[in-house]
C-alpha cells in the first residue's frame, strides 16, 4: 500500500484514476487544481503524484518542477491529452518518471503506477536511492549496499573489480532486485564517479521519445551527451524496440571505431539492465544478437530476495531506521513472529516490496513494535499443499512462493522418499528416477550426505 495524490480538473478522469488506484490497495487523495494538489502533497508526502498537464492555476510541468525540488522522494507521472514528444521530453528532463496519454487503457495506468512505486527511477529521487538498494554492510562504498549473504558479497567483489573497466556492463535480475543501485555503486567507485550518472527507462515510453533521448533527434541533446564523462544506464533494455536496437547497435559500433581512431566526440561508459536474460530473447528473435554481445561484455546477475533470505532482517532494520529518521520518531522493533513471516515470504516484488511492507507495518504498529497483524495480509497467508488425494498436508507455503521454488521442494520430497525406498542407494535412486548421479546430487544439494537425505 502506498500514498498517491492525483491532480486533474476533469472529474470523470479523476474519478477513474482514483478508483483504479484504490482497487490496487493504495491510499489516494484527489484534487482539481495545482495549488490544492501541491498542498496535499506537502501534507501527506506521497510516494507517487499523478498530475495532468493542463490544470487550473499551475501548468503540469510547473508542478513536476516544484515537486522534484521540494519533495524528491515522490515519483511523478504526467497525464495529458495534449501529448507531444517535446512535452514528454520536457517532463522527463524535469524529473517525471513517465507519462500517460489520454485516453489511456486502465491496464496501462495500473502498470505505470506499479512500476513507479516498485521499481522507481534514480533521477532526483533521494529517498528511493537511499532505501531501495542491494546494499551490503561495510565495504566503504559511496552507495550503501546492505546484506551479508554470500551472493551480495560476491556482487560487491565483482563491482569493485570492474569499476575502472571501460567495457559495457549488463545487470540481470528481477524487478526490484537492486540493479540500478549496483550500477550506481560501480560508477561511484570508478574514476568517473564525479561525472554524471544518467538513466533512461526503455520500457513504457513511445519509440519516438526513446529515439530522441538516445540519438538527440529533433535538435535535442542525447542522454549520452548529457552524461559526458560519466555513465549512462539504459534500464529494461530488453523492452527496446527492434528498430531502435538496430540503430543503437550501429551507433555504438561507429562510436567504438571513432574512439579506436582517437576521434571519439562523446565520452561515457555504458551500462544496461534487463529483467529477462538477453540471450533467451536473442533465441526467441526478440533481441538483436549483435547488440546483446556488444553491451554484455561484463555481466552481473542479481539474485532475487527470496534467494538471500539472510539479508531480510538487515534490510528490514535499514528501512526502519530510514523511516524513523524521515518521520522524526523512534525506530520501531519487529517481534520474532513478524520477522519469521518476513523471512519466509517469497517477495515477488523483491526489495521494493519489502520496503513498502515495512512502511505499511509502521503505519499500523502500536506500542513501538511491529507484530504479524501489522503486516500485509498476503505475507501472513499460507497455502496448504496436500500430499495426495487423502488430503494429508505435506507442505505449508507462504503466499508469494514462486512456482519453481514449490517444484524444487516437491522434487526434494520425492527424491528423498525414493532414496529411502532404495535404502540409501544413490545409484539405484538415480536409475529409478531416470537421472544421472550428478543430477541427483545437484537437485538435493551437492554436499548433502546420505544420512541427511534420509532425514
Structural summary, described in words:
The protein has 455 residues and is an alpha/beta fold. The protein has four domains: 3-118, Response regulator (Rossmann fold, 3-Layer(aba) Sandwich); 126-303, Rossmann fold (3-Layer(aba) Sandwich); 309-375, Helicase, Ruva Protein, domain 3 (Orthogonal Bundle), CATH 1.10.8.60; 402-453, Orthogonal Bundle (Arc Repressor Mutant, subunit A), CATH 1.10.10. It is 47% helix and 15% strand. It has 21 helices and 16 strands. It has helices at residues 11-23, 34-44, 60-70, 85-93, 106-118, 126-131, 150-162, 179-189, 207-215, 223-226, 242-260, 278-283, 289-295, 312-327, 336-344, 350-364, 377-380, 403-421, 426-433, 437-444, 450-453; strands spanning 3-7, 27-31, 48-52, 54-55, 58-59, 75-80, 98-101, 169-172, 197-201, 231-235, 269-274, 298-301, 333-334, 369-370, 382-386, 393-398. It has a five-stranded parallel beta sheet, with helices on both faces. Helix 4 links the parallel strand 6 and strand 7. The longest helix has 19 residues, at 242-260.
